[in-house]
Amino acid sequence: MAHTLSANKRIRQTAKRRLINRDRRKTVKVEVKKFDALVLAGDKTAAAAEFKAVQKVLDRNSARGTLHKNAIARKKSRLAKRLNAIVAK
């Protein structure tokens, strides 16, 4: 248990930040799952549109520091590779 006022404040801030970050990570997962479903269905135009939406969510999370920028770049690269695979078919 924290003893100082500043330590107690830090505990409150951390709890609040953890909830916010959890929600942001969940949003990323939901968007990626939507994209994956469209890729599996083979819907090229919808998958391309969803890819743009996923990129936007990922870039926003990168800018806010929720996820590391290299992790975001790696995820975007892998998603683009999957999109290009279905477009090429």
Ordered list of secondary-structure elements with their pairings:
Blueprint: H1 5-41, H2 44-64, H3 69-88
Q: What is the arithmetic mean of pLDDT? A: 96
Helix content: over 70%
- Low-confidence residue ranges: none
Percent of residues in β-strands: under 5%
Give the overall shape, derived from the CA principal axes. elongated
Provide a count of the helices.
3
Topology as H/E string?
A: HHH
The assigned structural class equals mainly alpha
How many beta-strand elements? 0
Termini separation: 59 Å
Using the CA coordinates, give the radius of gyration. 18 Å
Largest sheet: none
Explain this structure to me?
The chain is mainly α. The chain has a domain at 28-88. It is 88% helix and 0% strand. The protein is elongated, with a radius of gyration of 18 Å.
Short description:
The protein is mostly helical and 89 residues long. The chain has three helices and no strands.
Key traits:
89 residues; mainly alpha; 3 helices
